[in-house]
Amino acid sequence: MHSGMRQASTALLETPEQRAELFNAIQNDIFNSSDQKEEEVIEEKAPPKSISKMIKDGEFTEAMAAIRIRKDRSQGIKSEYKTLAGTQVLFRDATQQDTHPTSDKDYYDWATLGINYAAAAQNLFESHGIQQTHEFKTELKNETSKFYNTMKKQDTTGKREIYLALFIHQTLIPLLSKHIKIAGKEKQLTPSQIIERLAQVRDFGNFDEKPLALVTRMTTNGETFTQVDIPLGGGFSPELKSQYLDLASLFTRPPEHKWDIPWYKNQMPHIQYLIKKYANNILAGQIVPTQLREFLPALRNGGEEYLLDETGEIIQKHYHAGSPGHLLSKGLLERLPFVTTLSDTATTQSLKQLQTLTGAKHVLALTLLSPPMREDQDLVSQTRKAVAANNKIAGDTVFHTANIPLNKWGKKIPLNKSLSGQGWMGWLNPFRKPTGADWLVEQAVNEAKSLNKIDQTSKQISEELNALIKDYKKLSAIRWNPFPDKENRNLELVSVITRMAHVVNKAHQINNPTEKQPFVAVMDTCKSGKDRAGLAREQTLIDSIKGYFIRNQKTCEKDTVEGAVLRSNQVPIQAGVGGGTRGAGAIKSDSIAATPRAWKAWIPILFKRVASYNKKVPKDPRKYRAHKSKIVLAAIVIGAATAATGGIALAGGVVVAGVSFLATSGVGAGIAALSTTTLGIGTGAGGLLVLGGSALTARKLNKERKRVALAHEVESEIKTVSLSTGASPSSTNIQFNRTGNTSPSSKASVRPTTPSLRQRISSSRSPLRTLSTFSEAVPVTSDKQLDEAKKKTTPNVKGP
C-alpha cells in the first residue's frame, strides 16, 4: 500500500482525555516503579546497528532518531525511546548532568541536517515522478554515509557548517542533477530549482516518523523536577477534516478528478502530491511541522507541557505552538483590506482546532510577535480577526488574544500598547478595549475573592494569585522604554500570564468542584513556535520552579534553577524534532535580545547557527559575491563624497555664523548661517552613515573573499595529494587542521607542501572553509561529462 495511505500505528492525541492517558502512563512509569525498574528505564541500550549502517541501509529516519541518543550522551544525559499508551516517548535523565556552563561543540545537529536533506531527495524525486533507480539509491546512501563519517571526525570542529554546505552543493545537488538528466527531466528540475524545492519538501519527511513525546528529568537545589511535552495533532474542524479525507483518497478517485479545495489548488504540483501522500498521517494526529505553514492549514508545532515536582504533582501546565495565523495567501488581491483570505479562513479553523485540543471554556492565545515586521503584523491581525469572528458564534469556547513582542522590538514597544494586539495603530487609540491578558487578570481577581481563605490550600492559591496580579500590573504599566531592557520585562510578563492561567484553573476547580471542563487554556505562540515561544517556555519553567521553592519555604541558590532548566536542553531538542526541522535543534540567534542577564552563561547552549537552517539551505561557500564588491565600492565613494560635502557645508556655516556674530550683520545672515550649519550636519551625518555601513560590508566581503580563495587553494592541494598517492579524494578524504597536519582516512599521510598555505591555515581566525570532497561528483554540462561522471560515481550494480 502507498505510504500516504498507511494508517499511523500511534494513538490519537487530539482530545484532552487521550493525552491524559499518555500523561498518566508517563507518571506511572516514572513515579510508581521500583528503583531497579526505573534504572532499567533510563539506562541507554546499544542500538541494534551503527548509525553508519542505518544510513547505508537507507534508514534515514532511524539514523536521525539514533543521533538524538548520541547527542544526549555527549551532554551527560541518559536517554531511551519507549512506547507508552501507543505513543513513542523519549525519556531523558539529566539528573546527573554537570551544571557548569560549557559551549556545545558537537556534530550531531549538523549531521542530522545533512541526512534530512538526503531523505528529502527521495521525496523530491517521488513528488516529480522521477524513478528512484537502484543506482541512485545506492549512491545516495553511500555519499550520505561518507558525509556522516566525515562529520564525526574531531578535525571537522569549527568547520561543520561548511561541510554541510559542501555536502549539499558539491555532492547532493550534482548527484541529483545527474540522475534527473538520466531520467530526461533536466528541464523540469534545474540545479537552482533543486535547491529551492529540497527546502520545500524537506519537512514533509517529518511525517515518516511517529509523534514523539519528550520527558526530561533534572535536579536543582537538591530536588528533582520533570518536564513533559506531549505533541498536539488532529482535532480538526469538520470542514478541514473533510478536505483532508478527500485528499487522502489518492488512488480511489479517477485521474481526471479535481479537488475543489482552494488552499490545495493554490499549491505547486509537487507540493500537491506530498499533501495527498501524507494526508492520512495528518488525520491520524501527527504533528504538523511549522515550516509547512505556507502549504498546510493546521495548528503547527503544538505541544501540551507539564512541570512536575519530585512526587509527580503538577506544578505548571500550559500549551505552545506556532502562530494560529497562516501565510497561505499569495495573491495581490488578498492584500487588500476587508478581503477574506485563505489564511484568514485557515486561522479560524486553527482556533476551532484549539477548542477540540484543549477542551477549555476559554482559550488565550499569546502571540509573541513584532508588529514592525510585515509577516508578524499579518499573523497578529489574522489571529485578532479570527478571535472576533469565532466569538460572534455561540459556542462552548470563548477565545482571547494578546500580543507581547519579544526579540529586540520587545525592548522598545510600550507594553501597555503592545498588549492590545492592534499593531502600530493601536498606540493611537486612547479607548482601546481590554485585552485577553486583561481579561485573565479580571478572572484571577474574581477567583481569589471567591476562595475560602480558611482552607490552607485555598489560602496559598489566593496568595499566589494576588502576587501574580501584582506582578502583571507592575510589568504592564511600563511605557515607552528608549533604552535596552537588560531583563526583558516582556519575557517575564509572558511567564506571569502563563503561570496565572494555571493557578486560575486550580482556583476555579475549588470554587466549582462539579465542573470537569478546564476553565482557561493559555498557549504561547510565535511565528514558528520554537524561538520566541521557546524562550517564553524556558522562562515559565524557571519561574515555576522558583515559585515552588518559595511556596514551600525552601532554599534556592541564585541562578541554579536557570542552569538546571537551560542545560537540560528540552526546549531546543523539541525544536529539532517532529514540529520543527530535524537537526535544527536550537533557538535562532535573533532571539538573543530577548534573554535576561541571568541567562548569559547559557547562551552558547541555547543559541546556535544550526537553528537558522530550519528554513534556508546553506549557501555554496566556494562562491564569492564579486558583484557586491563593486556596489560597496561605489557606496564608499558616494559616502565619502557626501560626508566631505557635509563637512564643507558645516565649516561654511560656522564661518558665516562667526562673521555674522562679529559684524552683527542682522537676522538674515544669522538664518543663513543656521541653515547652512544644519544642512552641513545632516549631510555629513548621512555621508558618514553610508561610509560606515559600506566599510563594514566591504570588510565582511573581503574576509569572505580570502576564505573562499583559501578554500580553493586547499581543494587544489587535496586534488594534488590525491593524484600523487593514487587515491581518489573520496577515498582519501584529507582534512587539514589548524596546524597544517592532515588526517586522511587512508594510510597516506602528507603535509601541505606550500609554506604560505600552511601559514595561512594556521593563522586563519575564522573557521577554515576547506572543501571536503565527499565524492568526485561534478556538475553535468554535457553527455560526455555525464558518461564520465557515471563511470566514476556509479557502483557496478544492476537496476531493480
Number of strands: 9
- Mean pLDDT value: 76
What is the topology, as strand order, of the major beta sheet?
A: 1-2-3-4-5-6-9-7-8
- Cα end-to-end separation: 19 Å
Radius of gyration from the CA trace? 29 Å
What's the short story on this structure?
The chain has 800 residues and is α/β, with parallel strands linked by helices. Helices cover 51% and strands 8% of the residues.
Task: Please render the helix and strand layout as text.
Elements lengths: L15 H16 L3 H8 L8 H6 L3 H15 L3 E7 L2 E7 L14 H20 L6 H19 L7 H23 L8 H12 L9 E9 L2 E10 L5 H11 L13 H4 L3 H15 L18 E7 L5 E9 L19 H17 L3 E6 L6 H19 L5 E6 L11 H4 L17 H15 L5 H21 L12 H23 L8 E7 L5 H20 L8 H9 L1 H6 L27 H4 L19 H38 L3 H59 L3 H4 L22 H9 L19 H11 L7
Parallel strand pairs: 2-3, 6-9, 7-8, 7-9
Antiparallel strand pairs: 1-2, 3-4, 4-5, 5-6
Helix pairs in contact: 4-5, 5-6, 5-7, 5-8, 6-7, 9-11, 12-13, 15-16, 15-17, 16-17, 17-18, 18-19, 22-23
Structural descriptors:
800 residues, alpha/beta, globular
What does it look like?
This protein has a nine-stranded mixed sheet, sandwiched between helices. The longest helix is centred in the last third of the chain and has 59 residues, at 667-725. The two termini are 19 Å apart. It contains 26 helices and nine strands. It has helices at residues 16-31, 35-42, 51-56, 60-74, 108-127, 134-152, 160-182, 191-202, 238-248, 262-265, 269-283, 342-358, 374-392, 415-418, 436-450, 456-476, 489-511, 532-551, 560-568, 570-575, 603-606, 626-663, 667-725, 729-732, 755-763, 783-793, and strands at 78-84, 87-93, 212-220, 223-232, 302-308, 314-322, 362-367, 398-403, 520-526. It is globular, with a radius of gyration of 29 Å. It has 800 residues and is α/β, with parallel strands linked by helices.
